[in-house]
Amino acid sequence: MRKDGRKNNELRDVHIDKNFIIHPEGSVLITVGQTKVICNASIEDRVPPFMRGEGKGWITAEYSMLPRATEQRTIREASKGKITGRTMEIQRLIGRALRAVVNLNDLGERTIWIDCDVIQADGGTRTASITGAFVAMTLALGKLMNDGKIKKMPITDFLAAISVGVDEEQGEILDLNYQEDSKAEVDMNVIMTAQGELVEVQGTGEESTFTRAQLNSMLDLAEQGIKSLVEIQKEALGDLALLVEKNANKQGE
Amino acid sequence: MRKDGRKNNELRDVHIDKNFIIHPEGSVLITVGQTKVICNASIEDRVPPFMRGEGKGWITAEYSMLPRATEQRTIREASKGKITGRTMEIQRLIGRALRAVVNLNDLGERTIWIDCDVIQADGGTRTASITGAFVAMTLALGKLMNDGKIKKMPITDFLAAISVGVDEEQGEILDLNYQEDSKAEVDMNVIMTAQGELVEVQGTGEESTFTRAQLNSMLDLAEQGIKSLVEIQKEALGDLALLVEKNANKQGE
Amino acid sequence: MRKDGRKNNELRDVHIDKNFIIHPEGSVLITVGQTKVICNASIEDRVPPFMRGEGKGWITAEYSMLPRATEQRTIREASKGKITGRTMEIQRLIGRALRAVVNLNDLGERTIWIDCDVIQADGGTRTASITGAFVAMTLALGKLMNDGKIKKMPITDFLAAISVGVDEEQGEILDLNYQEDSKAEVDMNVIMTAQGELVEVQGTGEESTFTRAQLNSMLDLAEQGIKSLVEIQKEALGDLALLVEKNANKQGE
Amino acid sequence: MRKDGRKNNELRDVHIDKNFIIHPEGSVLITVGQTKVICNASIEDRVPPFMRGEGKGWITAEYSMLPRATEQRTIREASKGKITGRTMEIQRLIGRALRAVVNLNDLGERTIWIDCDVIQADGGTRTASITGAFVAMTLALGKLMNDGKIKKMPITDFLAAISVGVDEEQGEILDLNYQEDSKAEVDMNVIMTAQGELVEVQGTGEESTFTRAQLNSMLDLAEQGIKSLVEIQKEALGDLALLVEKNANKQGE
Amino acid sequence: MRKDGRKNNELRDVHIDKNFIIHPEGSVLITVGQTKVICNASIEDRVPPFMRGEGKGWITAEYSMLPRATEQRTIREASKGKITGRTMEIQRLIGRALRAVVNLNDLGERTIWIDCDVIQADGGTRTASITGAFVAMTLALGKLMNDGKIKKMPITDFLAAISVGVDEEQGEILDLNYQEDSKAEVDMNVIMTAQGELVEVQGTGEESTFTRAQLNSMLDLAEQGIKSLVEIQKEALGDLALLVEKNANKQGE
Amino acid sequence: MRKDGRKNNELRDVHIDKNFIIHPEGSVLITVGQTKVICNASIEDRVPPFMRGEGKGWITAEYSMLPRATEQRTIREASKGKITGRTMEIQRLIGRALRAVVNLNDLGERTIWIDCDVIQADGGTRTASITGAFVAMTLALGKLMNDGKIKKMPITDFLAAISVGVDEEQGEILDLNYQEDSKAEVDMNVIMTAQGELVEVQGTGEESTFTRAQLNSMLDLAEQGIKSLVEIQKEALGDLALLVEKNANKQGE
User: Fold this and answer.
1) Which of A44, A58, C166, F64 is most buried, judging by how many CB atoms fall within 10 Å of its CB?
2) Roughly what angle, to the nearest 10 degrees, separates helices F239-252 and F125-146?
3) Beta carbon pairs, E and F, within 8 Å
4) Model's pTM, two decimal places?
5) Structural domain tally of chain A?
6) pLDDT for B99
7) Over 80: is that where the pLDDT of B251 sits?
8) What is the DSSP-derived secondary structure letter of residue B66?
9) C126 labeled binding residue
């Protein structure tokens, strides 16, 4: 049993509050244990200069933490005047992951801006951001369909993300909180579709190494966790989930 | 009657949710109509270099808006690499206002960091930030007292802020929402204590001017609005409010 | 009597040297006691992108201090690579104030750039900047009329600014020098037209508060000071003053 | 057969020129096909502030490309005034990877600065950087031992990195050049020790996904490639290689 | 005869107004034709970190132009957030030149900050800055002697600077104004002591070249111009000039 | 005899490796003693905005040093987020020098980007950069002619650069290495054409001064050194050298 009473393959409590903020086209608050992220999706009716005229869309993400999302106050990146390497890595990851499940041609020459703002952090903020951002993006695309601006849902499958790791005592564990993450020997983030296809695997030995057997055990845990997350996404999305499911099934054929 | 049905001297609905985020020493979510601001207060056990060795404390504030707090997405200041003049003005204002009601000697060599993050904006974000930040700061100082780090509450009086303005058709109005603010001829922010003392008055003609009579009518409205806001602060603070009240009464003698 | 022998309602010596620098369309050196500011007005034949095509003009201001304008050398903002919050506040204030007395439609699609460079500082630099910038702007607009580029003077009234404050011993005082400003309990900047209309009121308790009675006394002092400043502006402007006066009288009718 | 005549499991030609530059404590030029990277290791006799007094060392890396390392000239990061997200990701990756095979306690309070400067790029610059940087670092540590500053070689095992990917037509391939990388559906970087332990796995579907079977095939290819790279490292290092081997064998027991 | 009526070897009118600004330890306004530069010298009682403990002083310079010093308004470097290459070159040049005539050991562990702010520009701003800065620095060092902080004048000789050039029609000319500078084929700045020793020679063909004969003619003109400038410096400095002269004579022996 | 055995008028060994890097239109590695600089020339088919429509070309240069080009590691300018004054001076110098020997009209609306990256430094990096960049630029222009994009070679003469100086013991010396440069009293860079025309002369007393006689001796040395450098350039350029020679001869007539 883990410090917080969970089994090795157990997720923390996950909630997705839909339409959290009124202005964005899609908005959710995702809660994973004590981690809370506001995920907003905004639609802009043009693409970046390097893509103009191709008839394709684009998805880009920004990520930030409130200074007191963390136990110790962290300095605002706006005050420092630059974005840290960690933030850049995460926002590139979020954008890349979401683009893997969107047919950018069906989106048309539009940009989806994803904003993930962590208001409370307890480990797993980047994976919670991706899981929440998927729902916010789907809501925004649902709105685009409602407004008659696109004819079909451009999303090809559900997408969720989770962290796994190796703990010295517990072995392979799912969904690490901050305390677990700090002492893990191996830390891995897995992004997968509902069909079990991998989108991104990032495993890192923290001043340590790991075997292929450990890699496989971690992937097993992640697959299971992502299945559960997709169920929670479907529930939050209601009828919109059906449109995504239809696309995913076609693909799976 | 105004567009949203309010009378000229009527505030929007105001709520203060206490302990909104777990990590900060003091944390509230303040809601003023559709405007929502997370106000966090952090205690740091040292002061900036220019104040060291004087035995006095310091209070400083930072303010930011989520990109989709607004109807149109605004670019993150962290991405631009610099803070706008508007943000600087607001964070200087918040810090200055709070320092006016804190006995910095009683605080000791500590810094209170105030973070006001607007997650949804509909006018009056700077005044809502001040009203909410006052409560977050009081909670943090209550915690310092509980932890035995300071002996007496350093806050000398309640402090709240509200906007007033002159509308071409309505005349002087209290607590402008975004739509009203956009078309107001005069825009004024007033910061006051519970005793009715002024801490800051900033009145601006927007490509326009105003008379001293109008200034006085606006101040009357503001005084009334601030009285109501202080009542809501007291309710949110519960027993802690009594400590502040005691100090204020002593001062008033 | 004050430290420098003035009465509470007495301005320092004020001089406005016209055509101080040869290149700008309008240029003055304003001297208020020991405070000296070069105010230049430049005309650019286009407006910022967000205003194009509206047929209206724009006025924007920049403010800076030479490193040794102050008793201690201050670091150049260019060397630091960013502008301080104080500078941003002041340049926004100057631009906003001047726009309040200019009919931007009569200006046409032109930008007036105001540059206020403090070469020697002894308190009141922002109010001296506004009072001097008004004259520089009027000179530049006079040149535009002479050149036949605009048909009528777009300025609707004279505009001047002055500081007032509350001193612990002296009570309310007019036109604070640096020493007085450093120890004032309340500091207020007032910007007014010749007709006595308010354009901006910014009153701040410096770790202190003030009453509405004090506010009113300070406004009385300011009104009187601004009347004197306008007389000095008129003298500097000579015949150009008559054009502004004519507009102001029309407005006052 | 691939475009350049290689088999799917075939590396490009790899050369490591030792002591390429005279000033650094360790310096190599690594050539992988047309990709050329100068890898320098510098020893500094102190650690960053956050680590002082712990008796441990630190390893940090910087990565850059000459503007014409690429077919189209890229703008210098120094001219832009900021480092791109891609560069940050790579330099964090290099530092993290090397730290995994160094006993930081044996290093003592010293920092090893790794500088990887790509002078010619044709895909795989980050993995070539790691493979070359390992050799540069070992040379620098060999010098520290020669100088009597450390008693034992702090490196625990050989470390090399290689890219693998999935090509639409070729299937899984090893060591992608730029052209292959541009059209690959999946791109994965693998960092491994000579003992076959994983240090980092980063697999990414490029607007695409991949199965666990594909992941396994790619890992098989990578393992084989890294074995060959380690042989080339050993040859370059000569006698120094024996010291690392001894440590690795002890660990493997 | 030149456009402005001068002979080829004729300086423009030069004036040096002493004690122009009240706060700096040394302050002059230098006027060379239409070029006007405020030169201030500030004494700081410490040296930069890299020089501490050596018992030697340091001299550093900053240079800037008011936006409307020029015929077209130039953007402030503070607004751009960075200093141009031209400004950097000039401020490095001023500091280096002054250091050549100061015995830094006699100065003690102090920094002299030179600020040259061009308020009106008509060519030759960098040479006017050096000529004026020399006087401001001497005044500041005179004050240090008066205050008993240093025992002897650390300046070893007078120093002045002037521009020379080659004009297509006029041949070699002295002290170019802006118009002449814009069309000159060769532009050279010469910095010399009263003893005729060279401190800096910077000659540049502007998309053109020049012969050694032309170089020599230009140096002849410069030598003559600098002699005249030193006389004007001496007059401005009064008795202080004698102390410098004494040092220069000793050196010349 | 100098420390490294050279005579006062003796260059170090100079080598120019042609086509060092594959991607640029022109590329050389120049070696001057222990100083090594990669010089790349890139052709871009447009000019900066301020030159468009004039039918003329432009040449611009960038310069950088690898962190361990020097004996002590220097911080990357990209990491600091800004370019030092020294770098700016050097890149302005390189661009200006090359433009002096190119007929920009014959180049057409194209930009030549020169990148000089010092990989190993031992004094004279800026002069080696210019001498090498001239060859890289000529190679790139040769390619433009081969591709039929320009009809005639726009280069009007050979151009090379060398440092000279005054050593306390040796007197005037040619081509200073780092050690000599550090202790030189006078440091001068000379840029000349094969015809012996001066393009740039920058002589600086390092906390010291120099006489016109010394200036002349240094120029004599430089002239001799540059003759030798031009021979090495001609050898590296092979047949392309003839095209430049033809232009130079025409000019010389």
Assistant:
1) F64
2) 100
3) 85
4) 0.93
5) 1
6) 96
7) no
8) -
9) yes
Measure the CA–CA gap between F7 and F173, rounded to whole angstroms: 8
The pLDDT mean for chain F works out to 96
Q: Is pLDDT at C77 greater than 90 in this prediction?
A: yes
CA of F102, closest CA in chain E: separation in Å?
8
What pLDDT score was predicted for residue A185? Answer: 94
HEC letters along C123-191? CCHHHHHHHHHHHHHHHHHHHHHHCCCCCCCCECCCEEEEEEEEECCCEEEECCCHHHHHHCCEEEEEE
What pLDDT, on the 0 to 100 scale, is given for residue F156?
95
Contact status, residue D159 vs residue D130, Cβ threshold 8 Å:
yes
Asked if A44 lies within 8 A of B120 by C-beta distance, the reply is no
Write out the binding residues of A: 86, 124-126
Q: Which domain holds residue D51?
A: 14-250
- Mean pLDDT, to the nearest integer, of F203-213? 92
* Segment A118-168, tens digit of pLDDT: 999 999 999 999 999 999 999 999 999 999 999 999 999 999 999 999 999
* Amino acid occupying residue F53: G
Task: Give the residues across from F204 on adjacent strands.
Answer: E200, F187
Check pLDDT > 70 for residue E49: yes
For residue A56, give the CATH number of its domain: 3.30.230.70
pLDDT, tens digit (0-9, with 9 covering 90-100), for C132-158: 999 999 999 999 999 999 999 999 999
What is the token pair recorded at D57?
């060392």
Q: Which residue has the tokens 């000599």?
A: F180
pLDDT in the model for residue F1 = 87
In a domain, F65, yes or no: yes
Task: Check D23 against F113: CB less than 8 A apart.
Answer: no
In this model, does residue D245 exceed pLDDT 70?
A: yes
Residue F146 exposed, middle or buried by CB count within 10 Å (0-12, 13-18, 19+): exposed
Cα distance from B71 to chain A (closest Cα, Å)?
5
Interchain pair D212, A198: CB under 8 A: yes
Percentage of residues of chain E with pLDDT beyond 70: 99
The ipTM assigned to this model is 0.95
Crossing angle for the helix pair E212-237 and E125-146, to the nearest 10 degrees: 40
Contact assessment for residue D150 and residue D108, using Cβ atoms and an 8 Å cutoff: yes
Tokens of E53: 């403990």
Instruction: Tokens for D130, please give them.
Output: 């790691």
Evaluate whether residue D238 is within a structural domain.
Answer: yes
Pairing of the two strands B198-205 and C198-205: antiparallel
Is E3 inside a domain boundary?
Answer: no
Tokens found for residue D251 = 């660990």
Cβ atoms E107, E57 nearer than 8 A: yes
**Contact: B115, A34; criterion CB under 8 Å:** no
Domain membership of residue B88 (yes or no) is yes
